[in-house]
Write a structure and sequence with these properties.
Strand content: 35-45%
Distance between the termini: 12 Å
Structural class: alpha+beta
Shape: globular
Number of domains: 1
Radius of gyration: 13 Å
Order of helices and strands: EEEHEEEEEHHEH
CATH architecture: Beta Barrel
Number of strands: 9
Length: 123
C-alpha cells in the first residue's frame, strides 16, 4: 500500500528521493483521516526549510493540518496543478506530490520510516 521506495514521517508526510532532490506529499493514511481535501497552502520556489519545519497547510472539510518538511532543503518546484485541484490528493495521495526540494542533507532520509515501519504506525 505504501510505496517501498518512499520514506515517511510520523506526521504522515512522504518523500521520494531521486538524484539529490525529494518530492514531498502526504500519505494515503493522512488523506483518509482528513477527508475531502479542499485547499492547499504550499511554499514558494526558493523557500528553504529544515527537517521538521512547517512548510504549508492542508485543509479538508473536517480540519486544517500543517505539512511538515520531512527533509531539509530548498524548494525548487511547486505542484501548481495540485494547488488548483487539491482534491487530487484524495484520489491518489502517493502520486500527488506537493513540492520538490533540493536536499541540503541527504543523510536525513535515514532517520525517516521505511514503508514497513510506516505501515505499522498507520494501523
Amino acid at each position: 500500500m505504501y510505496p517501498a521506495d518512499y520514506r515517511y514521517t510520523q506526521d504522515h508526510e512522504w518523500v521520494s528521493v531521486v538524484g539529490g532532490q525529494g518530492r514531498i506529499g502526504v500519505t494515503d493514511y493522512a488523506q483518509k483521516q482528513l477527508g475531502d481535501i479542499v485547499y492547499l497552502e504550499l511554499p514558494e520556489v526558493g523557500k528553504t526549510f529544515k527537517q521538521g519545519d512547517v512548510m504549508g497547510t492542508i485543509e479538508s472539510v473536517k480540519a486544517v493540518s500543517e505539512i511538515f518538511a520531512p527533509v531539509s532543503g530548498e524548494v525548487v518546484d511547486v505542484n501548481k496543478g495540485l494547488a488548483e485541484h487539491p482534491e487530487a490528493v484524495n484520489h491518489d495521495a502517493h502520486a500527488s506530490w506537493m513540492v520538490v526540494v533540493k536536499l541540503s542533507n541527504p543523510a536525513e532520509t535515514e532517520s525517516l520510516l521505511n514503508a514497513a515501519q510506516y505501515s505499522e504506525l498507520a494501523k
